Amino acid sequence: GESVGLHLPTLSVQEGDNSIINCAYSNSASDYFIWYKQESGKGPQFIIDIRSNMDKRQGQRVTVLLNKTVKHLSLQIAATQPGDSAVYFCAENMNSGAGSYQLTFGKGTKLSVIP
Amino acid sequence: DADVTQTPRNRITKTGKRIMLECSQTKGHDRMYWYRQDPGLGLRLIYYSFDVKDINKGEISDGYSVSRQAQAKFSLSLESAIPNQTALYFCATSDLEDEQYFGPGTRLTVT
């Protein structure tokens, strides 16, 4: 898995299997989290988000789980496909309350799907 | 057409030169951002702007400046480029919602 501050890990998954990418965040005041997918040569693309008042959110083939107790975020991809091969970033947003906030990105996890 | 465009897509320049990277968006968002991406370091925020009259420094603003010419345009300048500014640069936009939409990136090499 990844942490906001670690090396880029790699996850290899067989096509059709489920993938789980993990992210540990450090700021307990963060109230919004996003997963991005970045394919080679492209900019990051939004996948799914979750707010701190939720534990789970589902999208199309993706699920994000948030465990605030241990400050852990995960992205689950069902029935992984070759097109899912990319680098996945988690990002956290701490609302400073002054209307100003910034996304802090993790360093990414590279997902490789084996056909 | 892409919602967020960046020009140029690739640029090679020499140390000491002034470089401007441009970003345009058609999403109608007020908020725009510049990030740099280095291998193994993820995305780091350089500057951000919440409207035309608002400019804020990010995590790594030293050596960079920005200009918000209009709601749709946000440019990043390197006044005197140095080799450690070699990186992939991304522009992003957002509305009041938190999700940010990224451009395709500019690959900058400083020799």
Description:
The complex is a heterodimer of chains A (115) and B (111). With 115 residues, chain A is mainly β. Chain A has no helices and eleven strands. In chain A, strands 2, 4, 5, 9, 10 and 11 form a six-stranded mixed β-sheet that branches. Mean pLDDT of chain A is 87; it is low at 1-6. Chain B is mainly β and 111 residues long. Chain B is built from no helices and eleven strands. Chain B has strands at residues 4-7, 10-13, 19-25, 31-38, 42-51, 54-57, 65-70, 73-78, 87-94, 101-102, 106-110. The chains are: A mainly beta (115), B mainly beta (111). Chain A binds chain B through residues 4, 7-8, 32, 34, 36, 41-46, 49, 89, 91, 93, 99-103, 105-108, and chain B through 4, 35, 39-45, 48, 50, 56, 58-59, 90, 92, 98-105.
Q: Report the β-strand fraction of chain B as a percent range.
A: over 45%
The most extensive interface between chains reads:
A-B, 25 and 24 residues
- The total of beta strands of chain B comes to 11
Mean pLDDT of chain A: 87
Shape of chain B: globular
As a whole number of angstroms, the C-alpha radius of gyration of chain B is 13 Å
Percent range for β-strand residues of chain A: over 45%
* Count of separate DSSP helical elements of chain B: 0
Task: Using the CA coordinates, give the radius of gyration of chain A.
Answer: 14 Å
Helix-and-strand structural type of chain B? mainly beta
State the shape of chain A.
globular
Q: Find the structural class of chain A using helix and strand composition.
A: mainly beta
Contiguous runs where pLDDT drops below 50 for at least 5 residues of chain B: none
Helix content of chain B: under 10%
Overall mean pLDDT of chain B:
93
N-to-C series of helices and strands of chain B = EEEEEEEEEEE
Q: How many beta strands in the DSSP annotation of chain A?
A: 11
The helix-strand sequence of chain A is EEEEEEEEEEE
